[in-house]
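Hi support team,

I'm opening this ticket because the web form for multi-chain structure prediction keeps timing out on my end. I have pasted the exact lines I submitted so you can reproduce it. The total is 1251 residues across three entries, so I didn't expect it to be a heavy job. Is there a limit I'm missing, or should I split the entries? Thanks in advance, R.K.
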Amino acid sequence: MAPSSADIPASFVINGSRHALTIPPWMTLLDLLREHLHLTGSKKGCDHGQCGACTVLVDGIRLNSCLILAVSRDGADITTIEGLERDGDLHPLQTAFVEHDAFQCGYCTPGQICSAAGLLSERHAHNRAEIRENMSGNLCRCGAYTNIADAIEDVMAQDAAAREAAE
Amino acid sequence: MSLTENIHIGRPTNRVDGRLKVTGQAKYAAEYPAADLLHGAIVGSTIAAGRITALNVEPARQVPGVVEVFTHENRGKAAWLDRSWRDEVAPPGHPFRPLHSDRILFDGQPIALVVADSYEAARDAASLVSAEYEVREHCTELERKRSEAYVPPEKRSGIPPPPDPRGDPEKAFEDAPIKISRDYRVNAEHHNPMEMFGTTCVYEGNDKLTIYDKTQGSQNAQGYVTSVFGLKSKNVRLINHYVGGAFGSALRPQHQLFFAVMASLELKRSVRVSLTRSQMFHIGYRPDNYQTVSLAADREGRLRSIMHDAVASTSHYEDYQEAVVNWSGMMYHCDNVKLSYRLAKLHTPTPCDMRAPGAAIGVTALECALDELSYEVGIDPLEIRRLNFASKDENTDKQFTSKALHACYREGAAAFGWDKRKSVPRSMQDGHDLIGWGVSTGMWDAFLQKAEATAKLSADGKLEVSTAASDIGTGTWTILTQIGADAFGLPLEDVTARIGDSTLPTSPVEGGSWTAASNGSAVQAACEAAKETLFKHAKKMANSPLADSEFEDVAVSGGCIFRIDDPGKRLAISEIMHAADLEEIEEEGKVGPDLLQMMKYISYTHSAVFAEVRVDEELGIVRVTRIVCAAAAGRILNPKTARSQILGGVVMGIGMALHEEAMTDHRLGKIMNHNLAEYHIPAHADIENIEVIFVDEHDEKVSPLGVKGLGEIGIVGTASAVANAIFHATGKRVRDFPITIDKLLAA
Amino acid sequence: MNRFDYVRPDNVSDAIRALATGSSKVLAGGTNLVDLMKYDVERPGRIVDINRLPLKEITPTAEGGLRIGALVSNTDLAWNDDIRRQYPLLASAILAGASPQLRNAATTGGNLLQRTRCYYFYDPSTACNKRDPGTGCSAIGGVNRIHAILGASPDCIAVHPSDMCVALAALNASVDVEGPDGKRSIPFSDFHRLPGSEPQRDNTMSSGELITAVVLPPSDFGANYTYLKIRDRLSYAFALVSVAVGLTLKADAIDEARVALGGVAHKPWRDTAAEELLRGQRPDTQLFLKFADQVLTPAHGQGENNFKIELARRAMVRALHQAFAGTPQDQSVKSVQ
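Hello R.K., no limit was hit. The queue was backed up. Here is the completed structure from your submission:
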């Protein structure tokens, strides 16, 4: 793609790496990630904020990256599914999703996991009903919902146990 | 050779592609990079019928970055003859040819492709293409075309037409003491897989292409491309390693494949084209339908007459067909049966197989009607099903290879607690909630299709199994790995499955729940052949401890081949290969239906679905609080992924029961809720408890592996179980699916 | 999505200057604007990104209420301690809407300015007076099961989709706006408008004005409030009908009642005359029905949405019971007490 005069400088820290870019203002964060940085783990399931497949963490908060003009988040720290692993170890949610078979086709999965990571850090969901309600922004057409809820409950219990042990 | 103990088959094994999927590394069709990639955006028609009289593409051409705008006036060259456009699973008719002419046959029909050097430019420019039309009268309303419905003159391959009537169903109906006749409708549904349709066509030079496409059949899509564009087969490779759901929508090649390839060949560049979510409402769908089911019984509830008529929508260019009513002739024993199925043409795209095509709507109607009959007779809805158990397929007079449906009823009912059900509707209440329990039977074909595979054993003992199957979330990667691992007694890590590539051994499209049985059996056959070759080499070795052994006497495990009765007599695979001066052994395996057996036997998967709903009657709110699905599906290769298949079918069945429908403005011929905000599929909050039971079922005839398949059975019977539970809760019978708040308030 | 100029002012006066250009649009959370731009419903010539304006605080007012900066996110608002203590009705309504991801991005000002979800408004291939004034209303006689039963006009039957605004209407909030002609405060009931013959105008802001804050007067319904939302699936769907109720009680009687309806009109719907019926009365179903009937006296359906009249009636009665009993609807619990 040829640079255009409308392009605007914007920089991001994405999965720990700094990116100084010049991008057109009509580029969404999702398209920036997928088409330009080849971080295709964030998925495009509707492109309108209606499915949650594009969920990423922006400054630690879960957002639909398809509805964000990238330039409007200049300076943000972004974590995508590709950045959840630590030192080659899967994030506990990633492990739990595999163990509970919390996906089938895998397309909504990165969004589900990033959303669940956001849910855990928000700490507003404390039981199964609250997990279900607070994960409802992530559609799964394969119907893995019960397994996804199992996986999240599992990690929530691990977190609680770890906190208890620390106290 | 006797099978060694199965370590992997039958065990709840994590997906071998799980890590790739949870880390975002699994690549889907629109995610492959290519040098100088161009992006295409499709423009759809804004009328449902007529002709394009003028196209204005100039504003689009002015957008910086736009390379070309294709319309029917400058479309790239493609085959002229209809038959060149027919894919493996095309129904009879004239396949849709994008940009073929100025004719418009449905709203949203592609009228232009804008190609630009960025996705953003293509999208912007596409919004600037406008057309003028000569508008013709259209009809998208099935009810208006019901009287013109016809029996399709040419049958769709693989879809049995309704059988001839048996007995005297009209008279039996007339004479029976208890009878009902009811009309049902399941509104048109859209597959809406989470991944939007996309194709990345990598131009390798000299009309050589590597295509990444969202498809359920790499070879079907590859064949379409070579046929439509007149390309040599060896020059076109089509890859679909990961498919973000499909549910039937990717059985046939969709528009974006045509467009990406056409633009790529014309511009000699790599091109990516994706459909938008709205545009996915302009490809195939589960047909709209009206059904009438008439049932008559004696006073004990034995069925005396079954009549089932269905009219379903199709397009103006193809006669899409599915088996809607046939189930009513074989799910229950009845001597007097009449089944009829007709089509009506609408200005819509051709419908497309959607999870359990035919059964999902036909069984829903039958199972609701049977529920209604049970109340008329005054017996338990589960009892009426048991009472009318069919011990053979009365449509074809063939024996079932197995049918553990009684076990489904028994184990499902026990898990659900059915015996605590109060029989009278509206008899269970908790606060504002009326509670209802409903049951339904489910049934789906167990197919074995022709499939081929190879197994390649290398000197280091590692195994690679290959077949051009697809994994659309079904677990194919995993089960093929398990089968290979057990054949050679290997850990899963030492086995690599290769699928999702048109260059691999021949495979049918991934659909119909036949992949595990067909491709799985082909892989097993290939492994057996490779083992036999290994054994021959072992036997030939100097001083071979297996010299006197027969193939039946030995097994392979732990990198060695050995006598089962004397495991000390063994040879390492590496030794054998070294002695034979081989680096690898590769053999083929093939399976196909046993035509002789098929003259006498027929195979189906069965299920019993139990549903609990809570209905806030005053507000019309329905919650499905519990589902138990007990399935008899032969051998279960991987209980973990198998369970997920059922869960998925059940969730989609809940969507059919309560949420899903295309809402069409028939004045405009337009679907209005063409997005995921307004076409409601179940969300997390809608799904509570689902229990899956696999009952024991041994079936050596259905497929060499004893597998029946699980992709569809979960949806069949779920919507009817939910509807029946709603009736039990409220005493209200809604026969028009989905059962939304407005309908419950009106009932 | 079209190409546009992009500016990112640092202060309110610069933003107002930037908005003076005719086809400018304000970008805050973007959850509605970017969505509409992708459907080519909105094609702004200039985007004024106001995310750097200092409008992110929730501060107490001299009157004992709260002033909510226009850029406070829906999530931050819903989980703010002062809001949860003093205005749990607002928190509940916010949490009934959209999804956590959308609420994390969506702002207070943006929520007020979100546009209708009418299918036809969203589809530029159809006629729509709100999108393209003068082209007609396709929803009349079309697919209209989600459309208005109150306050519609022959030119538009769209409904306002917000949940938050329904609560704000019940809370007698006001909206602070600033424009080229200075600052003003608009009572919430006057902020959104009925479609009349100008359905393209969702609200009474003048062009070039910017929302800077939403101000809540002091309020204390205790536990006698609820936000009850009824929709086609149990989450992540717009309301068919929603009801916000706040009651103050004296002895066993209602002292003040505020009831706002969502999903039924071009604006959050309140009928203060009907609310007077409840004052001083001892609550029971008959009283609530009488109230609901009065609210719905002017209601009329468009065909597919006729059911919403009866649904709204029943929902009002149920919500009033919930509020009176002090058992507000929990948005994670899907059974309705």
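A quick check on our side: The mean pLDDT of chain B is 97. Let us know if the file doesn't open in your viewer.
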